[in-house]
């Protein structure tokens, strides 16, 4: 299949692009490099540095059969202070992409949605039919796109799947085409921040909240390895019929607290994480755990890689990168 991967210079986009190439697909990556890295685009992909909103004049020339759409602004906290950038980039950009796909007869899309569409729920694990209550503009933009996909599928015969990720971690090492992992310029995620703290380049890990109504007082999240996530994308590319839009959670189905993640980091690295306990971070729900039954039923998908493997792969990726010069000339990987 000839697949367009938007955002293929980012963390998850580059892993999925690399996996698609490893499976023998032809991959075209578009990415505006606003947060991605050109050297993260897998060597086997054709790369165009451009925004999805600018695709229309060229999409018809590329003979694309399906789109995997990652390109988005994705920082929950930033979205609360810059909602215009999130609505314009994520929603307006995606509508432009969908209209270009219609104009050029591209009939299949797999969309990178998020557990942030659910917000705080009373019942765990969260099923896809739970009421959407996004607690940030970021989550609201992902929900808006999910709603648009339902309408586009019904009216225009699009085959669409929205994959709602829970907490993605880990890295993907290919045998011959590189190592792909998480390297955000502004890092907000727990595992890379904890690894940076262990490596001595990020100060202490700020632990946001120890007074949650959870067994150890810290937030519980559902962590999923990026390799398992990529496998779900491959499956979604051949699932569903024209006119159908499926919304599918991608999570392990069980939760780990922040302290349990820090224990896994200590086990993998052999070093206790220096921690500074602090107040809660705005907008963090106490518990977010996915029901992954629908992913099993619809995609035949079952995650296999555990939290220790996620941390171990992220640690190896970090150490692998440490040998390379940083793009800004510094050697700080925090
Ligand atoms: N945390 C810390 N210190 C840090 C970073 C995180 O204590 O330095 C805590 C957070 O407060 C939270 C947990 O670790 O309790 C996980 O936080 P992450 O930032 O790693 O992940 P989130 O659960 O906040 O966010 C993830 C995705 C988002 C998505 C969201 C859905 O990264 O894209 O799940 O709720 F929107």
Summarize the structure.
This protein is α/β, with parallel strands linked by helices and 334 residues long.
Please describe what this structure looks like.
This protein is an alpha/beta fold. It has one domain: Rossmann fold (3-Layer(aba) Sandwich), CATH 3.40.50.720. Helix content is 36%, strand content 19%. It is built from 10 helices and 16 strands. The strands form 5 sheets. The chain has a 7-stranded parallel beta sheet with strand order 3-2-1-4-5-6-13, sandwiched between helices. A 3-stranded mixed beta sheet has the order 14-11-16. Strands 7-12 form a two-stranded parallel ribbon. Helix 5 links the parallel strand 5 and strand 6. Helix 4 packs parallel to helix 5. The C terminus is likely disordered. The site of uridine-5'-diphosphate-4-deoxy-4-fluoro-alpha-D-galactose has 20 residues, from helix 6 and strand 10. It comes from Jatrophihabitans endophyticus. Pathway: Carbohydrate metabolism; galactose metabolism. Keywords: Carbohydrate metabolism, Isomerase, NAD. Its cofactor is NAD(+).
Radius of gyration: 19 Å
Structural class comes to alpha/beta
Number of strands: 16
The CATH class label is: Alpha Beta
Enzyme class: isomerase
GO molecular function, one term: UDP-glucose 4-epimerase activity
Family: Belongs to the NAD(P)-dependent epimerase/dehydratase family.
Catalytic activity: UDP-alpha-D-glucose = UDP-alpha-D-galactose
